[in-house]
Amino acid sequence: MINARLDRLPMSRPIWKLVLMVGLCAWFEIYDIFFTAYIGPGLVRSGIFTTSTTNFFGFAGLGAFVAAMFAGLFVGTLLFGQLADRFGRRAVFTGALLWYMAAAALLACQHSAGRILFFWFLTGIGAGAEIVTIDSYTTVLVPANSRRRSFAFLQAIQFSVVPTVALVAWWFVPTAPLGFDGWRWVIWIGCLGAVAVWFIRLGLPESPRWLAQRGRVAEADAIVSRLEHEIVARTGMSLSEPEPHPPVVQEQKVSFAELWQSRYRGLTIMMLVFNFF
Predict the structure, then answer these.
(1) pTM of this prediction?
(2) Looking at residue 189, which CATH number applies to its domain?
(3) Nearest to 68 by CA among 81, 54, 58
(4) Residue at 179 is within a domain
(5) Which domain holds residue 45?
(6) Is residue 29, in this structure, part of any structural domain at all?
(7) Does 275 fall in a domain?
(8) pLDDT tens-digit profile, the chain (277 residues)
(9) How many domains does the chain have?
(10) Is 264 a domain residue?
(11) I need a labelling partner for 235 at 20 to 30 A (CA). Which of 11, 68, 71, 199 fits?
């Protein structure tokens, strides 16, 4: 009944608050991805990277810096995205946050191209794991019929970072506050924001749906009950009785190849094309 109780909830302030908190946490993850281009001129001016690459596998060109992030994103989403199903959305969300925050902070302290690429790759892995976790986390927190609005709100919060990080880079990259290159400050500012996110996430519950699937029904019930009481107190309206969902088929492990079977092939290709462009 956990799913039914969640899905009959109205999209009121308590639920929008949860989406807002997830969006704020995601904001700094998107910050790390988008400053890739904005700090490039600073890395070149510092003499760490060049604007061109001498050969395909050269590490001195700025293109290698960009590639390292997206290679990390690829690894993070492909290999670590599934961890949320095993350990819980909130736990992986927190772990990925700590991962990329630490990697980015260490990145800003490096002075050689090789070390910067290494820590930038690690940052990408953490960000990749965070991306898929944020989407799945939002999906299971909100009522099923309100997911479109929730994702629209989530995306609006996330991508407001683009002009923000551009402004921060415009301000800091040409300068050297306290003797440190401006591009380093752009990264450190993002890390400081991630520290604030650490405290925001304290107000985020684990997914009740995931807890119920894992047999931790009492924990799931406590979270949903608290949300129900808060909604009733805020809106003054009574909640409708939950309509039982069809029985859930027992979870089964599937292989990557199953995505390419006739049942899912069209959807898989559509999503690949959509995300590619």
Answers:
(1) 0.83
(2) 1.20.1250.20
(3) 58
(4) yes
(5) 2-238
(6) yes
(7) no
(8) 888 888 888 888 999 999 998 888 888 888 888 888 899 999 999 998 988 877 767 778 888 999 999 999 999 888 877 787 788 888 888 888 888 889 999 999 999 999 999 999 999 998 888 888 888 888 888 898 889 999 999 999 988 999 999 999 999 999 999 999 999 999 999 888 777 777 877 788 888 988 988 889 999 999 999 999 999 998 888 888 777 766 555 556 667 778 788 888 888 888 888 777 6
(9) 1
(10) no
(11) 199
Tokens at residue 167, please? 């402004």
Encoding tokens for residue 7?
Answer: 């899905």
